[in-house]
Amino acid sequence: MSRAKLTVVISQAQGKNPAKRALEESLAAALIMESGLDVSIVPYLYDLHPDHTGRMFLESISGDMAVLSWMYPRAAFWLLDRDKIKGHFGETRLKPPVDEDDGEAPPPKGIGALDVPDRQIYCIDLRDANNHASFVEEVLRIAAECRERRAARQPAALPAMIELGIRKASDPPVETPVFSPEQLLQTPDRRWYPVIDYSRCTNCMECIDFCLFGVYGVDTLDRIMVDNQDSCKKGCPACSRVCPEHAIIFPDFKTPAIAGAAVGPIGNLKIDLTKLFGGGDALAIAALERDRELVADGRGAVGLTVGIPKRQADKAPAVKDDLDSLMDSLDALEL
C-alpha cells in the first residue's frame, strides 16, 4: 500500500441500521472523490478474524491510516494494535463534548506497545457527528497533516519523487495485495473478547488471576496478553471491572468506560461512581458476572474467594481530602 497517500478505512456497523449505512455510504462517496486518499470499506473491526480478507487488507497497509468506526477511538486503536496493525495514536479534532469542569486527565503511565512502526493511526468515532461533511473535513485535515510530517522527515527532492510514484533503485520491490470489495465485505461472525490498552496497563496481572476461563496469558517478555480470545464468555465484562487502571476494553459493552471511552483519575483519586449512584461495588458485580458464567459452564461459583485484588491490603491509608470527606458523608447518609 502506497505511503504517499493516506489510507482511509470505513468500518461498517454491525447489523443493517439504515441511518448508519446511509452515513457510511455518503462518507465513502465523498472521500472517493478526493485526491490523495485510498478509501476502503471493511466490516466491523471487532469481528474480523485472522483469516478474514478485511483483516489481511488492514495488515497490508504500511503508511498512515485514518480508521472510521462505530466505536470509541481508544477501543479501535488498541483493537488494531492487538491485531498487529500498529502505529502511533493520531490525535483527531472530532471529539465528543467535554464538561468544562472535568479538566484534562494526566496521561496514563502504562507499559506501552511493542514494535510500533513510524506511522500514525487516527481513529474516528462515527457517532461523533451526524453528517458526513464533518468527517470529510477532518480526514482532509489529517491527510494534510500527514503530508507535512512526511515532507519534514525527507530530503527536499524525495517528496516529489514519492508523489510521482518514482522509486529509488535501492528500494526493495513492493508487492501490494489486491482485494476486491466483495472479498473485503464478507460478513464475519460476531465475536466477544477483551482488548488491552497498553498505554494504561501496568502488567499487574490481576486480570489473569481473576479470569478462570483461560483468556489471558503472557508473552515471551512476561507481558500480559489476551491469549485465547474465543474462550471469553459472550457479554461478560467482569475482568474490566477488576483492572485498577481501566486498561481492559470490551468495545461492544453498553457502559462507556468499559467500551473504551476516555477515562482518567480525578486529581489523584479513582472513584467508583457505581457506588455513588447505587449500582453496587465493582468487585462484587464482577464476581457475580464471573459466577454466572462458571455455573453456565457446569462449574461451581467461587464468589469473592478467588482472584480478588489484594492491592489495597498492604497500602497505608492516605490523607483524606475534601472529595474523600464528601464520599464519607454520602455513605453515612446511606445515599
Please describe the topology of this protein.
Blueprint: E1 6-11, H1 18-32, E2 37-42, H2 53-60, E3 65-69, H3 73-82, E4 88-90, E5 120-125, H4 132-153, H5 158-163, H6 181-184, E6 195-196, H7 206-210, E7 216-218, E8 224-226, H8 238-242, E9 248-249, H9 256-259, H10 273-276, H11 282-296, H12 322-332
Parallel strand pairs: 1-2, 1-3, 3-5, 4-5
Antiparallel strand pairs: 6-9, 7-8
Helix pairs in contact: 1-4
Describe the oligomeric state of these chains in a short phrase. Answer: single chain
Helix content: 25-40%
Tell me the span between the first and last alpha carbons.
57 Å
Q: Percent of residues in beta strands?
A: 5-15%
- The residue-averaged pLDDT reads 83
The poorly predicted ranges are 164-169, 266-271, 312-321
- Write down how many β-strands occur, each being a DSSP E stretch of 2 or more residues: 9
Tally the helices: 12
Broad structural category: alpha/beta
* Shape descriptor: globular
Could you give the order of the helices and strands? Answer: EHEHEHEEHHHEHEEHEHHHH
Domains counted in the coordinates: how many? 2
Strand line-up of the largest beta sheet: 2-1-3-5-4
The largest pleated sheet is described as: 5 strands, parallel
Estimated radius of gyration = 22 Å
